[in-house]
């Protein structure tokens, strides 16, 4: 990976949640490819603005290795919090404008974010190793293209997973700090926000997916934070991914409701370009071999392999952009009628700790 980076060649290196394998997709020239209809094969990297074309890395070389990260120290998030305090007044004013728009009846929810820049002296591969060690349940990645830039992150949120015709997705909303408790208590604001996201996803999948199943909502831990999560599954009517991805992205968890109006509000009022923050990324149409039987006595069937088409895409959260020795971090939160501007600000500070620990510990 370091050799590829020195040669200014595109790549993506990543590890899926709860796995111990790190996989790399290497492209051997600097051509900037784009995804047209999601029938392509490779590693897709899509921006927040759905009107912009996703970037596709061609899998000209694919590497895979077992990787068991070593122990990492526990940085004190409170000591790092002041680093995320810049821009408080501006962000709280933005939140207030969002609440007023909801009170007018124009929006039900809008996700508002900010960015912060900090000095970063660590090498990209060292940052990636830190992510692997700290966040085993997240999708950890390092992505680079010389014509676009470098991004890395540890996302807790699945956009969708497809194996042949079986689809899995999830709705995640609500945030509170993990303080050692096993079952956090959620307020009305977080529960309503989670219900909005779940309802939107099930409606978006209507007429595209059959046998839709929705699990109960439970608390999901991501690093030092808790979220509310609901699993959703179903069977795709045909293998065209494009209408499903377009229906889901951007979800209310990163944009708001109604989708088009909330996205318009974000683009007009956030006063910065999110670029790939709250976009999505991951494997697109990867051919995966699986054995027919795990029974060691069944040697005849074990000799045959099933090949299935898999796609796994993750929402690009808890991410940052690296430019030289400057890291730009992106954090945000869902705003509803019940939101408190001070608490919404504090939520962004808590979320910034995910990456600040990696940079400064």
From TrEMBL:
Start and end residues of each Chorismate-utilising enzyme C-terminal domain: 89-289, 309-351
Organism: Cerina litoralis
Classification via InterPro entries: ADC_synthase, Chorismate_C
Name of the protein: Chorismate-binding protein
Biological classification of the source: Bacteria, Pseudomonadati, Bacteroidota, Flavobacteriia, Flavobacteriales
Pfam families reported for this sequence: Chorismate_bind (PF00425)
């Amino acid at each position: 990976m370091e050799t590829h980076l020195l040669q200014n060649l595109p790549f993506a290196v990543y590890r899926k949640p709860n796995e111990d394998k790190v996989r790399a997709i290497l492209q051997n020239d600097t051509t900037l490819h784009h995804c047209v209809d999601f029938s392509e094969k490779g590693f897709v990297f899509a921006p927040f603005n759905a009107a912009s074309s996703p970037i596709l890395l061609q899998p000209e070389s694919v590497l895979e290795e077992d990787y068991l990260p070593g122990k990492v120290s526990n940085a004190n998030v409170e000591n790092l919090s002041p680093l995320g305090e810049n821009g408080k007044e501006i962000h709280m004013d933005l939140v207030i404008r969002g609440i007023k728009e909801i009170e007018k009846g124009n929006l039900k929810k809008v996700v508002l974010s900010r960015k912060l820049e900090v000095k970063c002296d660590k090498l990209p591969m060292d940052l990636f190793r830190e992510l692997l060690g700290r966040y085993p349940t997240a999708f950890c990645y390092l992505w680079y293209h010389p014509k676009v830039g470098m991004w890395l992150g540890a996302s807790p949120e699945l956009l969708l997973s497809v194996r042949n015709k079986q689809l899995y997705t999830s709705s995640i909303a609500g945030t509170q700090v993990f303080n050692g408790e096993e079952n956090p208590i959620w307020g009305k604001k977080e529960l309503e926000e989670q219900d909005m996201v779940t309802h939107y996803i099930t409606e978006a999948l209507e007429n595209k997916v059959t046998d839709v199943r929705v699990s109960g909502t439970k608390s999901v831990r991501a690093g030092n934070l808790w979220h509310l999560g609901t699993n959703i599954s179903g069977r795709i009517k045909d293998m065209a991914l494009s209408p499903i991805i377009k229906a889901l992205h951007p979800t209310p968890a990163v944009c708001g409701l109604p989708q088009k109006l909330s996205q318009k509000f974000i683009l007009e009022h956030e006063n910065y370009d999110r670029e790939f923050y709250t976009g999505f990324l991951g494997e697109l149409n990867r051919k995966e071999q699986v054995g027919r039987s795990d029974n060691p006595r069944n040697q005849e069937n074990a000799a045959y392999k099933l090949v299935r088409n898999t796609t796994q895409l993750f929402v690009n959260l808890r991410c940052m952009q690296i430019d030289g020795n400057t890291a730009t971090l992106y954090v945000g939160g869902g705003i509803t009628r019940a939101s408190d501007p001070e608490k919404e600000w504090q939520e962004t500070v808590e979320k910034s700790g995910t990456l600040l620990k990696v940079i400064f510990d």
